[in-house]
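can u do me a favor
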């Protein structure tokens, strides 16, 4: 495994010397197949031995062409089901089939996330980058719920929570691509989010409390998990070794596409509700099947 860390480090150092690009998420050119290959053995170990992933539904994934892959975010900043999905993708489709993931703008302010993220295919979560990727016939992975989904309270762990964000619907309609939902069960048990105190912290900050929100993600969770024991704020976490189950759902195709459809508020709302309803049904079904077999 250390050989692969060395490979990744060498790629990183050479890339930094050869390019003036600052890994800010605004380029599709930072994706590096060699870097992805260097991560695969590490992801494989977590996949097989740490999270003991079980997955199904991959027959639903189109074998070619562009699509918008829509997921529910889980497990704090570690987001273990994301890396496990990417491992599944690359072992099935190889490294040449293009896929880009939209990553929260705040993450690009930290080299810990920005540099390795960009090299495995992350770009900044902005419509311009999503459109650019789709126009290259690439697939785009998006988690509409963002940080609010990542750190949703533990009692909501079995709920699809997109926080009312509908930009992904407008994107799919405008670019005329199907939505392929992906869901997981278990990943949100890798930490226990007690509550989100963002509104309270924001209010205290506005009153003059010297709390800098430079990496403002819109959440301020209190959670139980590794390595802190009690995590205060959107701190990086190390996920607990909980088994993860993932599923690729059947593609969702809407009745109408195009710019006019994307500009119709009522139609966008209907499409949003359709996706949320479909994904919740799939998640409920997955949970029932897992519990029945345990």
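np, heres the sequence
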């Amino acid at each position: 495994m250390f050989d692969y860390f060395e490979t990744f480090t060498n790629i990183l150092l050479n890339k930094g010397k050869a390019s003036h690009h600052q890994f800010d998420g605004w380029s599709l050119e930072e994706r590096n197949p060699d870097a992805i290959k260097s991560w695969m053995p590490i992801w494989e170990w977590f996949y097989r031995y740490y999270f003991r992933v079980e997955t199904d539904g991959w027959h639903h994934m189109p074998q070619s062409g562009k699509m918008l892959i829509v997921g529910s975010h889980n497990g704090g900043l570690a987001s273990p089901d994301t890396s496990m999905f990417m491992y599944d993708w690359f072992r099935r489709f190889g490294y040449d089939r293009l896929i880009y993931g939209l990553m929260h703008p705040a993450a690009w302010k930290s080299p810990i996330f920005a540099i390795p993220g960009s090299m495995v295919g992350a770009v900044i979560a902005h419509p311009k980058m999503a459109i650019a990727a789709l126009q290259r016939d690439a697939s785009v992975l998006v988690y509409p719920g963002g940080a609010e989904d990542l750190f949703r309270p533990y009692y909501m762990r079995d709920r699809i929570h997109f926080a009312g964000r509908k930009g992904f619907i407008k994107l799919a309609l405008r670019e005329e691509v199907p939505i392929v939902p992906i869901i997981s069960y278990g990943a949100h048990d890798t930490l226990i989010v007690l509550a989100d105190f963002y509104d309270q912290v924001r209010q205290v900050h506005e009153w003059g409390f010297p709390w800098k929100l430079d990496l403002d993600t819109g959440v301020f969770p209190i959670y139980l998990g590794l390595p802190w024991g009690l995590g205060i704020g959107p701190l990086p976490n190390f996920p607990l070794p909980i088994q993860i189950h993932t599923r690729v759902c059947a593609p969702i195709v809407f009745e109408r596409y195009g710019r006019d459809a994307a500009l119709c508020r009522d139609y966008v709302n209907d499409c949003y509700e359709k996706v949320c309803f479909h994904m919740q049904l799939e998640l409920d079904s997955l949970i029932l099947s897992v519990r029945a077999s345990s």
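The first strand starts at residue 54 and ends at 56. hope that helps!!
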